[in-house]
Amino acid sequence: MAYTNYYKLEGNSNDYSGNGKNGTDTSVSYVPGKRGQGALGVDSTTGTTHATVTSPGCPLTSANRSFGCWARMITNANGDGLMGWGGWGTPGYFCGLLWSATHLAFAGYSADVTGNATVSGGQTVHAVVTYDGTTIRLYRNGVLDNSGAVTLNTQASDLEILRRKTNADPVYGGAAAVLDNVFVDNSVFTAQKIKTVYASESGRLQC
Length: 207
Known about the structure:
Elements lengths: L4 E3 L16 E3 L2 E4 L4 E4 L9 E4 L11 E11 L5 E6 L7 E7 L2 E5 L5 E2 L9 E8 L3 E6 L2 E7 L9 E3 L14 E10 L5 H12 L5
């Protein structure tokens, strides 16, 4: 499947989309993941473990988008960031996927949508967020978990994998989780497409 950005995290944060948006690793360890390897994050307020993609070309302002990953949750005491990009300090400037307490969540900085299903340590989940210019839809394991009307004005920044840091964010929270097959796309995935992707990949879980 073609994506705008696609990180298999097979021992590095290279971009498999063909668009050349490779990442730079900082203290990232690679362990068994969904398929092959995955990137291991550390629970911290400083986001010490992360991969950074500069000039990633991710969707900005209110543009259409879909993004997500496979994630094996470990612990979550201090940090919560799985992936994200954008600005900070103004509602709608950010765009990210979090593991917030015991739920998946979309974060837009005061423009947020939290999932309904409980996600505990030890679980592996397929998480996808879509935005069509008016509504955030958050999917867990191929099923809609929650949705909400949100106004986004996502700002340009690095794409961060394994932490929530943005260029202006003073809090760099990172969750302890193993991420795999991280993607960003500039289209809105349909519910059927998300279900198909989940079904085709879930049978090959290695974690």
